[in-house]
Design goal:
CATH superfamily of the largest domain: Bit1
Number of domains: 2
Distance between the termini: 59 Å
CATH class of the largest domain: Alpha Beta
Number of helices: 6
CATH architecture of the largest domain: 3-Layer(aba) Sandwich
Structural class: alpha+beta
Largest sheet: 5 strands, mixed
Radius of gyration: 23 Å
Strand order of the largest sheet: 3-4-1-2-5
Length: 160
């Protein structure tokens, strides 16, 4: 008996959805949701830059994980130290740009330049359980901050 009630309910729902689709009511309701623009960071707005060391030969998943660590670390610092920049970054699409560099020294040099420019930074040091040696600096997070300021420090780096 329960199977027949479930079957009848399923058929009734299918008929109702089909009728609503035919009338255009569902598509009109969904058109507002599906066409809502996702905010894109215009040139000159705020962004976050993630600088990845390529000499470590990390896999794609490892890079994604390390970038996630850097994003969370820099977000937490920004909550405490740069709430205005954080809010502007959040309002303009939370742009994240991932760039690459050759080795640890270049990461440290970029971090120094970023700090001299008054930018927030966060270095990620890996625990060394999978692909890298313990304590390896894998990613540097810089920002969030005005794109023009970040470009002065990281603009020379190529996208990953």
């Amino acid at each position: 008996m329960v199977e027949y009630v479930s079957l009848a309910t399923g058929v009734a729902c299918g008929i109702a959805i089909g009728w609503l689709l035919k009338q255009g009511r569902i598509s009109r309701a969904l058109s507002h949701v599906s066409k809502t623009p996702v905010p894109v960071t215009p040139h000159g707005q705020h962004k976050l830059v993630l600088v990845v060391r390529m000499d470590l030969k990390m896999g794609k998943g490892k890079i994604a994980s390390q970038c996630s660590h850097a994003t969370l670390a820099i977000y937490n610092r920004a909550l405490a130290e740069a709430s205005a920049d954080l809010k502007k970054w959040q309002r303009t699409g939370q742009a994240k740009v991932v760039v690459k560099t050759d080795d640890e020294q270049s990461v440290l040099d970029i971090e120094e330049k970023a700090r001299e420019a008054g930018l927030l930074t966060a270095l990620v040091c890996d625990a060394g359980r999978t692909q890298t040696a313990p304590g390896s600096i894998t990613v540097l997070g810089v920002g969030p901050a005005p794109a023009s300021l970040l470009d002065q420090v990281t603009g020379h780096l190529k996208l990953l």
